[in-house]
Automatic annotation (TrEMBL):
This is Uncharacterized protein. The keyword Signal applies. It holds the Pfam family BSP. Keywords: Signal. Residues 1-24 form the signal peptide. It comes from Carya illinoinensis.
């Protein structure tokens, strides 16, 4: 009886693989792995093979997980940006990840993500969670629109960290909501502000990204939220200042009654 079911199971697995569009290659000898998912070809290459960081990448993250993470991160970004058809998305057919023996953390250029093996080696805590968060940030740079280079760098980095925020893979050292000096300060500061704006209008960041296909204008905030970005930043700061005041008052009152 069991022998009759084996061909059926094999056929099912082949069909499932075809549906997912995944094609894996042997990476043990080449230090490279690849697959294709949803029309995008992904490759992972460890160029820092003999370094401690490269070995730690192999042991704690690995090629297979990285390929899965790249594909799932892409899908997450498309969904968050509400890009339901090809016309809404960037025309990217290949994304390459490199683990390099370099300083810093990571950077993205020409649809290539470069992650530092030195950073991997030196990171303490949840390494896989941290690098997954880096994947979300860097992959956003591949799929987001940047206003043809006209958008503020702080906004571009803030959107990338907004995606990381929504993914849940954020480090403990990030600023708390309401902190920061400028709305376009970038990274976690701007990500927290954009999260506030997104609460005011569900899908705000997706709409803002869509507007930046061909250019950038600070009045996009007015178009979408009926307030200037400076007024929104002022409201945001005031909101969390008020919350902090209430918290402090609550703590003081508790101490008085104790």
């Amino acid at each position: 009886m069991a022998s009759h079911h084996i061909p059926l199971l094999s056929s099912f697995l082949l069909i499932l693989a075809a549906i997912q569009g995944i094609r894996a290659v042997n990476y043990a000898a080449t230090n490279t792995a690849s697959n294709t998912s949803d029309g995008v070809h992904y490759t992972v290459t460890n160029t820092a093979r003999n370094t401690s960081g490269a070995i730690r990448f192999d042991n704690h993250i690995g090629f297979e997980y990285s390929l899965q993470a790249l594909a799932s991160t892409t899908y997450f970004i498309w969904k968050l940006f509400q890009q339901t058809n090809d016309a809404d998305k960037k025309n990217v057919s290949k994304v390459s990840l490199f683990i390099d023996d370099m300083d810093g953390v990571a950077y993205t250029s020409n649809n290539e993500i470069h992650v530092s093996a030195k950073y991997i080696n030196g990171h303490t805590g949840n390494l896989k969670g941290e690098i997954t968060g880096v994947f979300y940030h860097e992959m956003t740079h591949i799929w987001q629109w940047n206003g043809n280079g006209e958008a503020p760098g702080g906004l571009i980095e803030g959107i990338a960290d907004f995606v990381r925020l929504k993914s849940g893979y954020i480090p403990s050292h990030w600023v708390q909501p309401g902190q920061g000096d400028r709305w376009d300060q970038g990274y976690d500061v701007t990500a927290r502000f954009l999260d506030y704006c997104n609460d005011l209008r569900n899908g705000f960041v997706a709409d803002l990204n869509k507007k930046m296909i061909n250019g950038y204008n600070v009045n996009y905030f007015v178009n979408l939220l009926d307030k200037s970005v400076d007024q929104l930043w002022s409201d945001y700061k005031a909101l969390y200042h008020k919350k902090a005041s209430i918290y402090v008052c609550g703590c003081m009152c508790t101490r008085i009654f104790l």
